[in-house]
């Protein structure tokens, strides 16, 4: 009897733990102030609009193999996107960065080195952001107004820093995270996004990870299908502008 009871209690407790874990993940759990920053619009996860417009965003590039294929597929469907590049890679592949810009896409800042921002001081964070912005500006003459922290890192210090610089923290729409970087096949990535699509979403993808060619293929599939359904693919800054208009 006692045994059954303790088993039931263990089951109950693990159930609660599981549910709270899910809730934490669902709310991004990244920071207790997350929802407030969203309200203040210093951090954006989606935009409120009736218009069938969404943003595709690509992280961790530029990559010499994957990024050109992503660009070809965007061009094929006349879709615009935002590329959150790493400063160290932008420096290494300036021609790809130039191509991204010249084809009408937006370039966002995804830090210089993509190291873990935990336990780093303000000077370090600021340098990661400013150094990358300077590289992007030097190569493309685009001045990034969006910063996507590596690993989704958030802290009061980081938010103050970006506020000061008039930079918006570019998060993404949680339910549109297909985890494409985890070796998911193109069809699965595309289906996840097609199934969950709603106006105003910011869709996170990765051109800079080893699975990037599957991601590129997924772009071809999903943009074709959703364009036929009346969706328009715009840069993140354009999506924010659309949201402010309504
Ligand atoms: Zn990243």
UniProtKB/TrEMBL annotation:
Domain of life: Bacteria
Gene Ontology molecular function, alphabetical: hydrolase activity, acting on carbon-nitrogen (but not peptide) bonds
PROSITE patterns listed in its UniProt record: NODB (PS51677)
A GO biological process held by the record: carbohydrate metabolic process
Stretches assigned to the NodB homology domain: 52-234
Gene3D superfamilies: Glycoside hydrolase/deacetylase (3.20.20.370)
InterPro entries: Glyco_hydro/deAcase_b/a-brl, NODB_dom, Polysacc_deacetylase_ArnD
Name the UniProt record assigns to this protein: Polysaccharide deacetylase
Organism this protein belongs to: Candidatus Syntrophocurvum alkaliphilum
Higher taxonomy: Bacteria, Bacillati, Bacillota, Clostridia, Eubacteriales
